[in-house]
Amino acid sequence: MLDNDKDDYQYNNEEEAEMAQLHSIHLHMNAISEVQKKLAKMAEKPSAEFCEECGDDIPAARQKAIPGVQLCTYCQELHERR
Question: Domain spans of the chain?
Fold first, then answer.
C-alpha cells in the first residue's frame, strides 16, 4: 500500500468516527428534547400530593422541584426501569 493510500484510509476512518460522533450527539439531543416536552406537558397540571400508583405522600420539595409530578420517587424509579 502506498503512503497516500494509508493517508486516505486513515482520513476515512477519522471522517467515519466524526460522523458517528455527530450521529450520537443528534440522538442525545433528540432524547433531551423528548424529555423537555414530557416535562412541559407534566407541568401543565398541578403536582399531586399523593402518588397515583401507591398512594404515598409526595414530599412538598419533590412537588416544587418537578412541576406536575404524579409519582413518588420509588414509583417513578420503577416506571423508568420498565
Answer: 1-44, 46-82
